[in-house]
Amino acid sequence: MNDGGAYDINEDGTPENYSIIIDCSDELLADVYEWTKWLTRRGEITQDANTDGMDGEQYIGSDYKIQYTSTAPGALTEGAEVTGATSGAKGTVVQVNETDKIVILRNSRGTFGPASDPDEDVTDGTNTISTNTFTRITPIKSAPLGTFAGVTWFCAPGVVLINVPGADANNYQLTDDDGNVVTAPDKITIKVTNTKEGDKIGVFRIVPATGEIDKDDYTPTAAQAPGETTLDLTAPIAKDEPGKVSPGAVLRLVDADAQLEYRIRYTSWSNGPNGAFVLSATSGTATGGDTDTLTDSGATFTSTAKVGDLIRNTTEAVIAYVLAVVSDTELTTTPVTSWSGDGYQLNGLPITTAAADRVYIPVLDVYEAGADGFEQNIVTYDIDNRATSAVRVRARHADLPENDGIIPYDASGTIDSTGLSNNIIRTPDTIFTP
């Protein structure tokens, strides 16, 4: 846990204010909650950063919010003890939000804002905030970071959970620093089962009237150059696109002029007034290789590259795709003239964008690199915009039957409030030869 941050948990486009962050690291919330109880148990006298430097047994959470108007000569410092100029009340600063001019305190003694001076100055001895409004926060002494009831974690005021596992995406409730109860929108799972290593799996939204894949979702901002690591759009991104709950996904960029389509992996997305995708871009220079082998002695491909990634030879200005991640330092790709000595970029923007180009987002677009038996994405359910979506599920595996090769699989489906689950029918392809 640590201070700071603003997160749009309810996904309404306006971030809320929180002063205490708990990184769940994709662990189940029931387990993370038990960890917070252990940190704050009676007899815990470790002065831990997770309890703001206090003995765990004494930590009770935040207890005052100060909304200020002006500072002189600067903002208060986090961790400092502050004093009310008239009341003499004291407290320790948990977090300073200079954008929204909010200060959160803990371990307060006395009452700030007495009747004789309700907007009294508050100082840490060096810095002062003025024209203040004071709001008491009632801490949960028995559970300083919140309580757990049934399957739901009701977090203490000011606490935000990040990196929540998909299984618990609907199992928590927050209260922000402004006292507003905040819940995340419902999440649904899009899951394809009976997968095998080497499968290429996709779930695509379709135009119901024609059954064709809908490739007209977004327009990129024109004149973005090859090599850019962010793809900007001319309109906001729909809240039910993948990559918010399950980090990262794939977009398809359709080059209208060349009549080509590029598959690009992205790390995250956000909306300003318009949308932007942060691409999973990595650059380097090949220290060896040939037409379809790229080696880079300083690379970490096992963590930065995946089969199916777009890779651009920046020296030759040629687009290729990753066929295999052989090791940390070696990739197998579709052919170029030669990789040796050439620059490269994984998942960067491959072309100069134009107003006629289009971007669409598959609900699921993966290469099965393991043997889990399923692939899935967890996304926000957007009842106001897309209560249902007609989709096409596809799976391809070109190989000999004994190596799980199948006749191409296609099935129709519908994403609704329950998500989607589709089981691949694996009919062996007895005609294919390598």
Task: Output the keywords.
434 residues; mainly beta; eight-stranded antiparallel beta sheet; 3% helix
Report a brief summary of the structure.
With 434 residues, this protein is mostly beta strands. It has helices at residues 29-39, 301-304, and strands spanning 6-7, 16-17, 20-23, 62-67, 70-72, 81-84, 90-97, 102-109, 122-123, 128-130, 133-136, 146-149, 152-155, 159-162, 172-175, 181-183, 187-193, 200-205, 230-232, 249-255, 260-271, 275-279, 282-285, 288-289, 293-295, 310-313, 318-327, 330-333, 343-346, 358-360, 364-367, 374-380, 389-397, 406-415, 420-423. Among the domains are: 62-136; 186-217 and 361-434, Immunoglobulin-like (Sandwich); 282-346.
How would you explain this protein's 3D organization?
- Among the domains are: 62-136; 186-217 and 361-434, Immunoglobulin-like; 282-346.
- It is 3% helix and 40% strand.
- The chain has helices at residues 29-39, 301-304; strands at residues 6-7, 16-17, 20-23, 62-67, 70-72, 81-84, 90-97, 102-109, 122-123, 128-130, 133-136, 146-149, 152-155, 159-162, 172-175, 181-183, 187-193, 200-205, 230-232, 249-255, 260-271, 275-279, 282-285, 288-289, 293-295, 310-313, 318-327, 330-333, 343-346, 358-360, 364-367, 374-380, 389-397, 406-415, 420-423.
- An eight-stranded antiparallel sheet has the order 5-10-9-6-7-8-4-11, with no helix packed on it. The chain has a seven-stranded antiparallel sheet with strand order 23-29-26-27-28-25-24. A five-stranded antiparallel sheet has the order 19-22-21-20-30, with no helix packed on it.
- The longest helix is centred in the first third of the chain and has 11 residues, at 29-39.
- The mean pLDDT is 93.
